[in-house]
Amino acid sequence: MTRIDDTFARLKAEGKKAFVSYIMAGDPDYGTALEVMKGLPEAGVDIIELGLPFTDPMADGATIQLAGQRALEGGMTLEKTLQMARDFRAGDDTTPIVLMGYYNPIYSRGVAAFLEDAKAAGIDGLIVVDLPPEEDNELCIPAQDAGLNFIRLATPTTDDARLPAVLTNTSGFVYYVSITGITGAAAAEATDVGPEVARIKAQTDLPVIVGFGIRTPGAARAIASVADGCVVGSAIVSEIADGKPVDEVLDFVRSLADGAHRA
After folding, report:
1. Contact 68, 27 (CB under 8 A)
2. pTM summary value
3. What is the dihedral angle through the alpha carbons of 100, 103, 105, 111, rounded to the nearest 10 degrees?
4. Which residue out of 5, 46, 60, 239 is catalytically annotated?
5. Is 228 one of the annotated active-site residues of the chain?
6. Whole-angstrom Cα distance, residue 100 to residue 126?
7. 60 catalytic, yes or no?
8. Three-state secondary structure call for residue 1
9. Within 10 Å of residue 108's Cβ, how many Cβ atoms?
């Protein structure tokens, strides 16, 4: 059992949906990003997705691309991202952290070394969007052998023929991408998402969490009502990009979490 598994078991017992928040490591700078991260659990966040800055984030829209650029320009690296997790863990040993990014920085470090370091830093799961199931031996299976969840994305174009491959070796939860496109590009609609979540849940016992296109407390509540929870990323990153004080960013996160938890 990972912290992710424990969190979903607790939420199920409480009859609550999960709220997952995404922030980019090192955006707008290390200190501010860490302060935001440390405040997320008190703001109602159940699972933290920590973005790993990368130069070519193909699944991400402009908001998260720019956040990654700011982080990289500020000197953020994979090692410093892991240090953020270590610094967070100094005060919080229960909130799950999912590292979300792309394979190149992990490959460059070396899979074995990365997994050892990530586990030691307190990372609980990985979302690596450019590794399909056909490459499971590359990182997915070694990660799970190391005790990390490997979380796969399903999308509106993942048909019934493809879905079993996506679900094989997935653990922790399934991340359902609510729209056809990049992060922050369009609004998610519960009427579209509900049947897709039901289709996925018919083939897995894993929780299904919905992300992309959720920007308001009302949308968080609506989407969480037809799934096991929701993820918000771009809307939070936009608040940070606008230079909002940390307490205002966390107030916004709290409003989103409240929406999801009322579902």
Report:
1. yes
2. 0.96
3. 100
4. 60
5. no
6. 6
7. yes
8. coil
9. 9
